[in-house]
Amino acid sequence: MADFPILSVMMLVPLLAAVACLLVEAKAARQIALVATLIDLALGVLLWVNYDIGGAQWQFHENVPLFAGFSWALGIDGIALMLIMLSVFLMPICILASASIEKRVGEYMAAFLLMETLMIGVFAAQDIFLFYIMFEAGLIPMYLIIGIWGGADRIYASYKFFLYTLIGSVLMLIAMLWMVNEAGTTDIPTLMEYNFAPEVQTWLWLAFFASFAVKMPMWPVHTWLPDAHVQAPTAGSVILAGVLLKMGGYGFIRFSLPMFPEASAQFAWLVFALSMVAVIYTSLVALVQNDMKKLIAYSSVAHMAIVTIGLFAFNPQGLEGAMVVMLSHGLVSGALFLCVGVIYDRLHTREIDRYGGLSINMPYYALFFMLFTMASIGLPGTSGFVGEFLSLAGIYQVSSWVALVCTTGIILGAAYMLYLYRRVCFGEQKNADAAAMPDLNRREWWLMAPIAAVVLWMGVYPESFLAPMRADIAVLDARIARAKPESDAQLTAGKPKPANATEHTAHGEAH
Fold first, then answer.
1. Contact between residue 245 and residue 215 where contact means Cβ atoms under 8 Å apart
2. Confidence class of residue 496 from pLDDT cuts 50, 70 and 90?
3. Which of 170, 272, 299, 418 is the most buried (most CB within 10 A)?
């Protein structure tokens, strides 16, 4: 495996398949897309199996100089590995979930395959400009998916999605250009260890924050997300919630925290404030929704706020919790959107009041929906519990008040998710058309069962997912350890003292 360019191959396979999909008829395009995504999933498993836990921090290196200091530089650590696995796992499910697409099928499949190439590129890029190209180019296929195959208001939603996420990234590009000029390199691992002047870090951090906060999305720049989810086709919602939102969190982990540790500590209070508002506000908004997709979209904002809380807790528990929440949310929110898509394909409405009592005529559907609902709430034994528990344990070490507010948001999350489940699956069957809907077919079983298995696997044995990331999180924790005293001083209700510098040094030497 040492000489095999597996990362480039994983990007090339869907790219070639995308071109092929444009040249064949609809049925063949579906088959090509499914085969290509399954090949990438197999390559992802090979990547995971051959990843050396406890070995070098950066593995599977590829570096081909191109021009003017720009290079095709790829490589992954454990954090990138897990996010690549999330991407290649969800993509075949998205292709299978697109059976209802009948218009311009070849272009549709090509857009998803192109997006897979770009998502892998974001997580594997080790050149800062290569990262930026992949990060921004990912907007284009999703913009087309929403704008061409979306709902009635798809044009408005697609433009809003594109403009929100693009405008913030212009500032990030300016910051990148300055950083490269200052440090004399475009290599991301080198920049992660470069010590920018504290007064400069403030402006660089804000420039990157403008992009990553929109991508997450954080309150109050979250308003594009509900519109995008409601108008996107089912598979578009799955990949948007499952992977694209995680690019913002990955950006914080890869850029904001290690490159600007002092600025991250300086603005921790801002992140905490915005995250606390997001957890409470979006949970309350979700509670009154009558559109299933919009409810799940608002719940995504609340869950991603738990991610930012964990990241800026500046301790191993918070960082590990944030990563697990990202992985879990990618699976669970994607599964919930699939659950909506299953009944939408039958009744062509997302209004909660049009359903009811589905556990009678769709018992297997109700079972899967219940599992994913409980995982979203954070039931012990599911993936949701592990991430939320670690994140809250991490933030409690910094501020009991922030932990208290976020825990309140989790209680609200249980309220709106259980309320949704009760109205859809329990109660009387008031509508004959809903009562006549058939249960899951074979294709829909293949959509639900793999995600259910991984959600339970992550909940019962999270070490499988934490082990590849632990040493990299320790290195990141050691890098930002010096900023902890400043961060803690800004929070009036600091609780148990964080680990001392010696402990962080020990963590940092894990590699």
1. yes
2. very low
3. 299
